[in-house]
Amino acid sequence: MAVKLPDLKLKNVVSDENDEDEKDNGNHLDISLEKLNLGPKKKLLVLCLGGLLVHRVHRRHWDSVQGLNPDLCYGKFLVFKRPFCTEYMQFCFERFEVGLWSSVTEHNIDGLLVSVTGAGMKNKLSFVWGQEECIDSGFHCLRKVEKPLFLKDLKRLWEKKYLDLPWRRGQYSSSNTLLIDDEPHTGLLNPPNTAIFPRPYKRPDSKDTFLGPNGWLRSFLDGLADADDVPSYVKKHRFGHPPITPSHSDWHYYSKIVREFGKKEEDGDKSTSK
């Protein structure tokens, strides 16, 4: 992780890649507001919730945090907000289009957002997705066999599978989207170098500075905001847990999931082409 990251620099105004096709034929100039890009295009940052921004403790494990004061109590859970969490979210909003994608159910997300983002900041999120928008692989986590293994397929964002996303189809792709998740298996279906997997925040720690102004994550994201594209930057600046690839020690297990959903995708393509 001892990699020197590029300094934050002034972003250039980026014109739409199709602008060269817009030519004045002498009769009129047809430039839509969508093509008239008056500022830099922000990359899309997709954040997980538990393990990155908060630590959730189920009631059956409350003894593990005995004597500590949670930031929120709801249902069977105690919630501890990670230090610098609210300031980190503000940092992200200033540099990126930001969405939140958790693998917990949506009714549990609602109880966390105000605590995580701060008053008024929740509305700045481009979307809030939960378990319902994940893919249930039908498999279970290797280290926690009672936990279902959910996948986050970024194509659902890029292809606008849901109509409430606030951008046009094709605006985001593998070139300008980054998923941040503490569980590498969530990115199994995505193109290489479109995600980073920081080590999870597993226990309340007031001295944790990971999301802080001098933390590694902010330095990484400062550089990413100015990078030409996401995959080349992520490949050059390795971060956290490695992605799950054929060189992974448990690939024999994860490859079953990749093959299973690769087959379903192929079958779906064949059915739509008929």
From TrEMBL:
State the Gene3D superfamilies in the record. Answer: HAD superfamily/HAD-like (3.40.50.1000)
GO annotation, cellular component aspect: TIM23 mitochondrial import inner membrane translocase complex
Query: What's the short name of a Pfam family annotated to this entry?
Result: NIF
**UniProt superkingdom:** Eukaryota
What compartments host this protein? Answer: Mitochondrion inner membrane
- SUPFAM superfamilies on file: HAD-like (SSF56784)
Residues annotated as domain FCP1 homology: 38-224
Cite the entry's keywords alphabetically: Mitochondrion, Protein transport, Transit peptide, Translocation, Transport
Name a biological process GO annotation: protein transport
Report the membrane topology from the UniProt record.
Single-pass membrane protein
- Coiled coil (residue ranges): none
Record-linked PANTHER family: DULLARD PROTEIN PHOSPHATASE (PTHR12210)
Assigned protein family:
Belongs to the TIM50 family.
Q: How does it assemble?
A: Component of the TIM23 complex.
Summarize the protein's role.
Essential component of the TIM23 complex, a complex that mediates the translocation of transit peptide-containing proteins across the mitochondrial inner membrane.
Q: What is this protein called?
A: Mitochondrial import inner membrane translocase subunit TIM50
Q: What's the source species for this entry?
A: Abeliophyllum distichum
